[in-house]
Amino acid sequence: MAKNGKLSDADLTPIFNGAGPRVQLSNSAAAAWNSLALHKDTVMRVKGKVSAYRTFESQQHFWNLYQAGKGNLAARPGTSNHGLGNAADVPPETEASIKRFGNKCNWDKIEAPGERWHFNYVGGFKRPNPGADPGNPVLRHGSGGFGQDHFVTKDS
Ligand SMILES: [Zn+2]
Fold first, then answer.
1. How far is the CA of 156 from the centre of ligand 1 (A)?
2. Coil, strand or helix: which one is 97?
3. Distance from Cα 65 to the centre of ligand 1, integer Å
4. Bridge partners of 120?
5. 9-121 adopts what CATH topology?
6. Distance 106 CA to ligand 1 centre (A)
7. Tens digit of pLDDT for each residue in 92-142?
8. Which residues are near ligand 1, the ion (C-beta closer than 5 Å)?
């Protein structure tokens, strides 16, 4: 099991984030996110550069702010789902996309009820990662399903 906030490059995959900074999630969370990003009716973005995977040091920073009464609710360092690459903080248009379509790709809101921008990857997404570029999705054996189905046709 990878350590919270100390994931290796092999545990992480870049996600589509529009014109925003390059951010990463756990491999299967990223596959699910990038599949959602391929769908024409979704807008998949995160709020900033620490809004997806968050290192232990970054968690410590937010914890310190929270403890000092200067920041949002923060998880104790080493316990955040951001540290496992399985959570994302998103702008309102992505919040709407996840509420509408997240169940197709195993994204949902399961914690932090006071933070409407915080969503979780709930596990179990099995399809290949189409990559972080929706203009050039990478399709492999097993690709298809929500988001990817515009690009995949079945052999008859
Ligand atoms: Zn969050």
1. 44
2. helix
3. 15
4. 87, 108
5. Muramoyl-pentapeptide Carboxypeptidase; domain 2 (3.30.1380)
6. 17
7. 999 999 999 999 999 999 999 999 999 999 999 999 999 999 889 999 999
8. 89, 118
